[in-house]
Specification:
Elements: E1 2-3, E2 10-16, E3 19-24, E4 27-32, E5 51-55, E6 61-65, E7 72-76, E8 79-83, H1 98-117, E9 128-133, H2 139-147, E10 163-169, H3 172-184, E11 192-196, H4 199-209, E12 215-218, E13 223-225, E14 231-233, H5 234-246, E15 255-260, H6 267-282, E16 285-294, E17 301-311
């Protein structure tokens, strides 16, 4: 399992009876998690909370706010994220994805060095282009952009980046939130293109335009709707989208990452998809694992989905 171990502002304190006790910066929340099927005793820490999301037996649920601001912030390294509780238990960030942010950062920084060392490639050449589909509130977008920032230079200057990111999400609100996160991290002028669109239709248009990307990542929902009512069902749609994205890859791709929270998509399925597409055409290495977060009290690692990674080198 790939575990997000580098957080300082987030941790899972404990888990029991279908819930997890989490510390988000200064605030402690209780949220449901279907993976927590055990009923270990809940200690005093469970009573010192700022908010509790109660799941309803009829579906959905609601927040009980005890002492929680409407918006607060946490940091991951140089990145800053605004958090706020909204429908269906979310806070606007999936902390387990930090393990993928770290991996993508390393891949991109290695690619920058390799380009710089290649013949006839200058430091000021075209940036490495990243496409982030179903990009949500921009955690991966900000991490990828930051990976291309030239150390010691002004983060607010566009020319100081060697990675550009195209951020695509069907929700105008989520794209606005992602912009806010970029600004909080000092990257309001970073080379990020913000797109509100259905991801499949955007990819199809990019193919017609003849555009290409060096790295692609996607974090599709199990089920969703586009801005014009387009329907997305992960098991039915994801492989066709991966095949479409193959037409957008550059001649020297850096990575392809797929996240999945759908129960039916095991890590092996993600590996097969990338093996049948990226690895078949470009060689390289395909790996896939569950991703997770460590529980402070027990040391157990709570699974929070799966990721498939393809890259030219591992």
């Amino acid at each position: 399992m790939w575990v997000a171990e580098n957080w300082k502002d987030y941790e899972i304190l404990d888990t029991s009876e279908g819930e997890k006790l989490e510390k988000w910066g200064e605030y402690v929340l209780v949220r449901p998690d279907p993976q927590v099927i055990w009923d270990t005793p809940k200690g005093y820490d469970w009573k010192k909370i700022n908010a509790h999301y109660h799941r309803s037996h009829e579906g959905g649920g609601s927040w009980e706010f005890i002492d929680l601001p409407e918006v607060w912030k946490i940091n991951y390294g140089k990145l800053t994220f605004a958090l706020k509780p909204f429908s269906f238990k979310h806070t606007g960030l999936f902390p387990e994805q930090a393990v993928n942010w770290d991996w993508m950062t390393q891949r991109l920084q290695n690619a920058i060095i390799n380009r710089r060392n290649s013949e006839n490639v200058e430091e000021n050449s075209e940036p490495i282009k990243v496409l982030n589909l179903f990009a949500y509130t921009g955690g991966a977008t900000c991490a990828c952009a930051l990976a291309g920032h030239k150390e010691g230079t002004d983060m607010s200057v566009k020319e100081n980046y060697q990675v550009s990111v195209t951020h695509v999400d069907a929700s105008k609100g989520m794209v606005g939130w992602a912009k806010e996160n970029a600004a909080l991290s000092g990257m309001e002028n970073a080379p990020i293109r913000w797109i509100v669109d259905d991801c499949v239709k955007f990819v199809e248009r990019e193919i017609r335009r003849g555009n290409h990307y060096d790295a692609i990542l996607m974090d599709p929902p199990s089920y969703g709707r586009g801005p014009k009512g387009e329907t997305w069902k992960n098991e039915e749609c994801i492989f066709n989208l991966v095949k479409l994205c193959m037409q957008l890859m550059s001649d020297k791709p850096v990575f392809f990452l797929i996240n999945a929270y759908t129960t039916g998509l095991a890590p092996a399925v993600l590996k097969y998809m990338l093996g049948l597409t990226m690895e078949k055409k470009y060689g390289g290495v395909t790996l896939s694992e569950e991703i997770g977060l460590r529980v402070k009290k027990t040391g157990l690692i709570l699974p929070e989905g799966a990721s498939g990674r393809w890259t030219t080198k591992e």
